[in-house]
Amino acid sequence: MNGDRRSGARPTLEAVAARAGVGRGTVSRVINGSPKVSEKAREAVQQAIDELGYVPNRAARTLVTRRTDTIALVVSESEHRIFDEPFFAGIIRGIGSALSETGLQLILTMAQSRNQHDRLELYLTGQHVDGVLLISLHGADPLPGRLEEMGVPTVLGGRPVGFTPYSYVDVDNRAGARQAVKYLLGKGRRRIATIAGTQDMGVGVDRLAGYRDALLATGMPELVAYGDFLEPSGVNAMERLLEQHPTLDAVFAASDAMAIGAMRVLKEHGRAIPDDVAVIGFDDSAIAAQTVPPLTSVHQPTEDMGRQMAQLLVARINGERLEQPVVILDTHLVERGSA
Questions:
Q1: Structure confidence at residue 336 as a pLDDT band (50, 70, 90)
Q2: Among the listed residues 143, 82, 146, 85, the one whose alpha carbon sits nearest the alpha carbon of residue 108
Q3: What is the CA radius of gyration of the chain?
Q4: 149 — phi, psi (to 5°)?
Q5: Which backbone phi and psi does 283 adopt, to 5 degrees?
Q6: Cys bridge to 22: 26, 134, 208, 322, which one at CB 3.0-4.6 A?
Q7: Rounded distance, CA 304 to CA 294, Å?
Q8: Which residues are CB-neighbours of 64 under 8 A, at least 6 positions away?
Q9: 56: confidence class by pLDDT, cuts 50, 70, 90
Q10: Mind listing the pLDDT tens digit for each residue in 87-119?
């Protein structure tokens, strides 16, 4: 690394702390990009680093933070769901591609219950990993905040409900849903239903908000049923919608899996797709092109999302200051036969 071979003794972490008038822990948190440092302390540490020529290279960080060269991906879902949903595969591929040349190893952990989360928190804060990626958080999960408080660099995939994390990557779910419903309106559909996702997740809240945005100025009724992003919930929600609103002529589902479940029910009830009822999903998963008819869907760049998450986390682990700790990726509608 630059500056490693200078003549004379290299500046130490203790020297930086003494020059800045702060403790070792504060210097370590600044180096690792933790937001739990006051701006005044951060500036003092940065000035001391510049004046002393301190280089927080890999060897130095290993002594200070006991680097493990391992990062954890935490998914708050069941093993069955992780390996069945294409969204997670895309995220993991993106993370893997970003880490391929860094020397960092990825471990996958799953935690749903409170006991599982408590055990996981002890592991993640016990210097077993250098940083943590979290996806599919439900509700106001305390784990991200606790990791940050303990100085563990953390990046989230998806905006959670109930709090705003320091660093996360998401897609513009609200705009994507709004575009889908406006497309249906443009095709002359006038009784547009939605199968919304779970409302304890930012993705579920935002996609429902986009549906409502598009209908707001039209005076048309909101026809809403709720699912959990999986196909069986799309089946159940579509049954309820047809029972309550038999004259509906379009459905926007908050995931491709729910849209596919909805299409199955519509066919069973003798509704032609798209002539009687148009259907749009969200994900643009590989299976969307294989349904009959092929499913129109909102494309979300899951691999890019995973790459961006990993890049942000590596930067934090390496002590780089993030110019853009929050990244929102664009979506676009992929037109196929179902709408």
A1: very high
A2: 82
A3: 24
A4: -60, -30
A5: 150, -40
A6: 26
A7: 24
A8: 13, 24, 28, 31, 56
A9: low
A10: 888 999 999 999 987 888 999 988 767 777 778
CA 144, CA 167: separation in Å to the nearest integer? 10
Q: What are the structural domains, with CATH classification, of the chain?
A: 13-65 (1.10.260.40), 70-169+302-328 (3.40.50.2300), 173-299 (3.40.50.2300)
* Average pLDDT of span 283-300: 95
Give me the phi and psi of 215, to 5 degrees please: -85, -15
Contacts of 162 (CB under 8 A, 6+ apart): 139, 140
Burial of 244 (0-12, 13-18, 19+ CB in 10 A): exposed
Question: CB neighbours of 319 closer than 8 A, spacing ≥ 6?
Answer: 30, 31, 32, 33, 56, 61
In the chain, the percentage of residues whose pLDDT exceeds 70 is: 92
Buried b (16+ CB within 10 A) or exposed e, 310-322: bbbbbbbbbbeee
Is the torsion defined by CA of 276, 238, 232, 285 positive or negative?
Answer: positive
Residue type, 117: H
Single pTM value for the model: 0.78
CB-based contact 205:138 (threshold 8 Å): no
Three state DSSP letters for the chain: CCCCCCCCCCCCHHHHHHHHCCCHHHHHHHHCCCCCCCHHHHHHHHHHHHHHCCCCCHHHHHHHHCCCCEEEEEECCCHHHHHHCHHHHHHHHHHHHHHCCCCCEEEEEECCCHHHHHHHHHHHCCCCCCEEEEECCCCCCCHHHHHHHCCCCEEEECCCCCCCCCCEEEECHHHHHHHHHHHHHHCCCCCEEEEECCCCCHHHHHHHHHHHHHHHCCCCCCEEEECCCCHHHHHHHHHHHHHHCCCCCEEEECCHHHHHHHHHHHHHCCCCCCCCCEEEEEECCHHHHCCCCCCEEEECCHHHHHHHHHHHHHHHHCCCCCCCCEEEECCEEECCCCC
| Nearest-angstrom CA–CA distance, 311 and 325 | 11
Residue for token digits 């994507």? 176
